[in-house]
Design brief:
This protein has nine helices and five strands, in the order H-H-E-E-E-H-H-H-E-E-H-H-H-H. The chain is mostly helical and 300 residues long.
Length: 300
């Protein structure tokens, strides 16, 4: 077999027949698949949006009205000076002075109480169960309280908020008035007690003036000054007495005699009879000394 014959029998490139109609059919089927997938996605999205729009149209809409209030905590001091009577002092401490509790918790409990909610609902002619409950939030490290109240319409939510605020404020004012009444009653009782004591003191003073003859303020002032002077003299005399007692003890120790004898010696110094006898004794003793000096033992 020659080289050329081998080449003719086995060609290097083999011819292939392409069927164009078959290729067209495969492309058409792929295009149909993509079209069906796209249509499915559109249908699903349309269904989701339809359900969403239906829910938004038929669902009950809710509107929220929010507002905030601040609870002040300022302390106050009152000082009154009444000439010739005395001084009165009043002090109110801040509600936030104690770290163990927050006064806003009391306001929160008061705002959510049935009495306040019922009063707010009554002002709007709404049943208590239809008014709803406000959401109250205490903002930390501030004096602010935040309120939220819902309604079916914007006006209803706003009206509920205004009604709740008004009922809340009225309740606080009522409690304050009751507290003022109680404080006034206690103050009246204390004033009545002081008034009775003042009348008793005035009666005792009038009786004392009548007995002592002191009828004017000048006389009373002079009498008070004299009493104070006598008190000072008494204190001075007591100090002198303690000093004399100390000297008496010292003399008793030095002379080796009892304190009673030293006291008697001091008493005899102020006795005129004893002093006269002592003087006579001194004169006689002096004469005796002179005579002894003149008349010696050897004198006949």
């Amino acid at each position: 077999m020659s080289f050329f014959n081998l080449f003719k029998k086995q060609p290097l490139v083999k011819e292939k027949n392409i069927n164009i109609s078959e290729y067209y059919q495969q492309g058409s089927s792929s295009k149909v698949g993509w079209t069906a997938c796209l249509l499915g996605i559109i249908v699903v999205n349309a269904a989701i949006w339809s359900l969403t729009l239906t829910y938004l149209n038929k669902a009950k809409r809710t509107y929220v009205s929010d507002w905030s209030i601040t609870i002040p905590g300022v302390a106050s001091n009152t000082n009154i000076n009444l000439p010739e009577i005395g001084q009165a002092t009043s002090q109110n401490y801040s509600a936030y002075a104690a770290s163990s509790y927050d006064p806003r918790e009391n306001y929160k409990l008061l705002a959510s109480s049935d009495d306040v909610i019922r009063a707010a609902a009554t002002s709007l002619n709404l049943p208590l169960e239809n008014f709803g409950q406000a959401k109250i939030k205490i903002i930390p490290n501030t004096t602010i309280m935040k309120f939220e109240l819902s309604g079916s319409t914007p006006n209803e939510a706003q009206n509920k908020s205004q009604a709740l605020y008004q009922a809340f404020e009225n309740r606080i004012n009522k409690l304050r008035d009751e507290e003022v009444v109680q404080q006034n009653l206690k103050l009246q009782v204390a004033i009545q007690d002081l008034r009775l004591k003042l009348r008793s003191a005035q009666q005792n003073l009038s009786t004392y003036k009548t007995r002592s003859g002191l009828s004017t303020n000048e006389q009373i002032s002079t009498f008070a000054v004299n009493i104070e002077a006598l008190r000072r003299q008494k204190a001075e005399l007591l100090a002198q007495e303690r000093q004399y007692n100390s000297r008496l003890v010292q003399l008793s120790t030095n002379l080796d005699i009892s304190p009673q004898n030293v006291a008697r010696a001091f008493a005899l110094q102020s006795d005129p009879v004893f002093q006269k006898y002592l003087q006579n004794y001194s004169e006689v003793r002096a004469n005796l000394t002179n005579l002894k000096a003149k008349f010696l033992p050897t004198h006949p």
